Amino acid sequence: MVTVTHPDTLATPQGASDAWLSVKQLSDRYSAHEATIWRWAREGRFPQPVKLAGNLTRWSLNDVEGWEQTQRGASE
Length: 76
Fold this sequence. Notes:
Blueprint: E1 20-21, H1 23-30, H2 34-42, E2 50-53, E3 56-60, H3 61-74
Antiparallel strand pairs: 1-3, 2-3
Helix pairs in contact: 1-2
């Protein structure tokens, strides 16, 4: 029997509490084009993605939320 895991519900190492976000989820979250998310990451203005397997790349929710906090602090 083969178990298929949806990419957005991938298990994390034991003891780690993290969720993973796709570029589509991030583009929806920030109302930005997917290419903009990739450009921000490439320019170092956004957390770096993690390559989980083959063609599966996701962003750590913890990293993204940390980045959001720094953005809020910078705007105050």
